[in-house]
Write a structure and sequence with these properties.
By secondary structure, the chain is mostly beta strands. Helices cover about 5% and strands about 45% of the residues. It has one helix at about 75-85; strands at about 5-15, 20-25, 40-45, 50-60, 65-70, 85-90, 110-115, 120-130, 130-135, 140-145, 160-165. It has a six-stranded antiparallel beta barrel with strand order 1-2-5-4-3-6. The protein has a five-stranded mixed β-sheet with strand order 10-9-8-7-11, with no helix packed on it. The model has no long low-confidence stretch (mean pLDDT about 95). It comes from Entomospira nematocerorum. This is Ribosome maturation factor RimM.
Amino acid sequence: MINKLTHLAVGKIYSSFALKGGVKVKPYSDDLSHFRSFKGKVITLLRHDTIKELTVLNTEVKGEWPILFFEGYTTPEIAQSDLKGGEIYVPRHLASPLKKDEFYLGDLIGLNIYYKGNSIGICTSYFEAAHIIIEVQQQDRTVYFPFIKEYFEAPNFINNQVELIKGDLIE
């Protein structure tokens, strides 16, 4: 299991690239510069509930696409069949640097969700649709909320909580 407190998802392998077994990555952020720091590092790949540790031999950026080359993957066919669709996780210090008032979506997991000062559950997951949707585990059920500013205040990571400001979603 990947520890999402110490590792962050930075992208998903879109396809193989080049004749030497590289892969094209669909990044989860607009900042691609941090992908260059992966050279020589071990990344974690989650694909079909299987976790692999891969050593990055080389990195490139082609337009909006980071390109990664891994040890042991020397042909596009092997890279495509073994890696395509895999989600890339890296230690937090290798992820894209945050700007003021930014946070990683993974940091929402584990936050207590409050409404009018009362705890209504804990954020257990999130996914992207038209908006970011957070999954909140309550005592007897799981509910989903769009994580948008009209419904939530900014997360308070010091107090490990976020306040829901629009109660019509609770019903």
